[in-house]
């Protein structure tokens, strides 16, 4: 993404060196350091959500969803937690086809 702001900067991901660095790639890059940084960033968001008084069950579900990096649908995470959360899960999964965590992260 640095290439967007710096002329003649290499457009490849500085972590894996293979893919073009896009917002989508940053979220899916499998290089260990990039994955670790993403999880640390998600943990910071979780702390911010706690500090802001986000409803605990909602916070935990969103954080699990983000840590899953598209491996689970929100419907799978919500499971048997309750009616209004099931409605949220259906909406999120419908919007993103099960991978709306990218939209949530951007």
Annotation keywords:
single chain; 106 residues; mainly alpha; 0% strand
Beta-strand content estimate: under 5%
Largest sheet: none
Outline the low-pLDDT stretches. none
State Rg.
16 Å
Mean pLDDT: 83
State the shape: elongated
Distance between the termini: 13 Å
Would you tell me the structural class of the helices and strands?
A: mainly alpha
As a percent range, the share of helical residues equals 55-70%
Helical stretch tally: 6
Task: Count all strands and give the number.
Answer: 0
- Helices and strands, in order, run as HHHHHH
Notes on the protein architecture:
Helix 2 (32-51) runs antiparallel to helix 3 (56-68). It is built from six helices and no strands. It is mainly α and 106 residues long. Helices cover 59% and strands 0% of the residues.
Give me the secondary-structure topology.
Elements lengths: L22 H6 L3 H20 L4 H13 L5 H5 L4 H14 L4 H5 L1
Briefly characterize the structure.
By secondary structure, this protein is mostly helical.
